[in-house]
């Protein structure tokens, strides 16, 4: 029996969704694939799920979302939209949950980053972010807003902070 080790990118399985288009059953409308996320080793089988759809007027599936072996979810070439009828209760909530049972001062609770992959000028980097973090161990929380002025070697730095008691600091951290 041949137990050749799976290599990164090997397709392990797939589910295809195909329907009649009036001519044939020749094109997939959507697909979910299970893929090796890295080379396999003895009792080490990192996998990822890839989600594909076909655009209106198209005949070829395109990867739209991926969940990798670390649990990172990536949407590819699209926006992430939360949609719900909020008339009876607010449902379209983006929530960041810190699963630690003990919170340390300055511990990050959630962060939204805005990154450019532009390789010209000062290169690819996070251009701005919004960060929520514990101010202390109670944990009261603050929100900071950071921006990048651009230029080689320029760091993305905090420009504004709102503290747990509602103080707003511009170019200040308290």
Task: Put the structure in a nutshell.
This protein has 174 residues and is an all-beta fold. It has no helices and 10 strands.
Question: Explain this structure to me?
Answer:
Strand 3 (47-53) and strand 4 form a beta hairpin. It is built from no helices and ten strands. The mean pLDDT is 87. By secondary structure, the protein is mostly beta strands. The chain has a five-stranded antiparallel beta sheet, with no helix packed on it. It has a five-stranded antiparallel beta sheet with strand order 6-7-8-9-10, with no helix packed on it. It has strands at residues 11-18, 28-36, 47-53, 62-67, 73-75, 108-116, 125-134, 141-147, 157-162, 168-170.
Low-pLDDT sequence parts: none
Structural class: mainly beta
Count the E strands: 10
Let me know the average pLDDT: 87
Major sheet: size, sense and barrel closure? 5 strands, antiparallel
Rg on CA atoms, Å: 22 Å
Query: What is the straight-line distance between the termini?
Result: 66 Å
Q: Outline, from the CA principal axes?
A: extended
Write the H/E string, N to C.
EEEEEEEEEE
Main-sheet strand order equals 1-2-3-4-5
Portion in helices: under 10%
Number of distinct helices? 0
Annotate the secondary structure layout.
Blueprint: E1 11-18, E2 28-36, E3 47-53, E4 62-67, E5 73-75, E6 108-116, E7 125-134, E8 141-147, E9 157-162, E10 168-170
Antiparallel strand pairs: 1-2, 2-3, 3-4, 4-5, 6-7, 7-8, 8-9, 9-10
Key features?
174 residues; five-stranded antiparallel beta sheet; mainly beta; 0% helix
């Amino acid at each position: 029996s041949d137990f050749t080790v799976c290599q990164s990118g090997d397709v392990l399985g797939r589910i295809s969704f195909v329907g009649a288009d009036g001519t044939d059953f020749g094109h997939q409308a959507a697909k979910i694939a299970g893929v090796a996320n890295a080379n396999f080793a003895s009792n080490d089988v990192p996998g990822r799920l890839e989600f594909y759809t076909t655009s209106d007027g198209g005949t070829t599936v395109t990867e739209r979302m991926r969940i990798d072996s670390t649990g990172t979810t990536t949407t590819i070439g699209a926006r992430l939209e939360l949609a719900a009828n909020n008339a009876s209760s607010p449902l379209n909530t983006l929530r960041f949950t810190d699963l630690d049972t003990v919170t340390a001062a300055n511990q990050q609770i959630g962060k939204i980053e805005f990154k450019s992959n532009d390789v010209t000028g000062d290169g690819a980097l996070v251009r701005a972010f919004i960060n929520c973090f514990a101010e202390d161990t109670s944990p009261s929380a603050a929100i900071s807003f950071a921006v990048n002025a651009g230029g080689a070697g320029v760091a993305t730095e905090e420009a504004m902070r709102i503290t747990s008691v509602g103080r707003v600091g511009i170019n200040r951290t308290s």
